[in-house]
Amino acid sequence: MNKIAVFCSASDTIAPVFMEKAKELGAWLGQHHKWLVYGGSNTGLMEVLAKSAKENGAMIMGVVPTKLEENGKVSDLLDVSFHSVNLSDRKDIMVQEAEVMVALPGGIGTLDEVFHVMASCSIGYHDKRVIFYNIDGFWNDLLAFLERLEAAHFAHRPLKNYFEVANTFDELTRLLE
C-alpha cells in the first residue's frame, strides 16, 4: 500500500501520548516511502503527523475543505492539495485517493470519516478498510458498541469485514505493509 489516509484529531490540547504516536506513524510513513493522505489541517495530530512524515521523506496530500482555508488552518507541508467544497466531498476524495484508512484518536470528525468509509464499503462502493489504531484503548468503547450492533442484528454482515484493529504500533505497521 502506497497511499494511506489517516483520520485524526485537530486538537492541540490532547494527551501527549497521542501526539507521540502520531509522530511515530508519520516517521514510519516517510521511512517507507508512503503517501500520507489526510485532512490538511495545521493543528493537532494532523500537523504532528504531517510534519513527522514530511521530515522522513513522505509525500503529503491534503484534502482541504473550504472552511479550513477560510480560517487559515491549512498546513504548509502539503505536496498536493485537493480542495473540497465540504466535509462530505473531503471524505469521498480521501477514500478515492487512499488504499487504506487509519483512524488515530479523534473526535466527531474522525468518527464521521470512519463511519463514512465503513458504510460505503458495506454497500459495495469500495472494498477499503479502516484500521483503528487503538492507542491506550482509545477505541475500546466504540469497538464494544460495534459488537453490540452486530449482536442485535443491526448489521447485515460481520462488521469486521470493514475494519481491523491495531493495539500496538507493530500490529499497525504489519497491517500497512
Structure notes:
This protein has 177 residues and is an alpha/beta fold. It is built from seven helices and seven strands. The chain has a seven-stranded parallel β-sheet with strand order 4-3-2-1-5-6-7, sandwiched between helices.
Question: What are the defining features of this structure?
Answer:
177 residues, alpha/beta, hydrolase, cytokinin biosynthesis, Cytokinin riboside 5'-monophosphate phosphoribohydrolase
Strand content: 15-25%
CA-CA gap between termini = 6 Å
Low-confidence stretches: none
> What spatial form do the alpha-carbon principal axes imply?
globular
State the CATH class: Alpha Beta
Number of alpha- plus pi-helical segments:
7
Could you report the average pLDDT, rounded to the nearest whole number? 95
Order of helices and strands: EHEHEHEHEHEHEH
Second CATH tier, the architecture:
3-Layer(aba) Sandwich
Main sheet characteristics: 7 strands, parallel
Fold topology:
Elements: E1 3-7, H1 16-31, E2 35-38, H2 44-55, E3 59-65, H3 66-70, E4 80-84, H4 87-97, E5 100-103, H5 108-122, E6 130-133, H6 140-151, E7 163-166, H7 169-176
Parallel strand pairs: 1-2, 1-5, 2-3, 3-4, 5-6, 6-7
Keywords: Cytokinin biosynthesis, Hydrolase
Protein name: Cytokinin riboside 5'-monophosphate phosphoribohydrolase
EC number: 3.2.2.n1
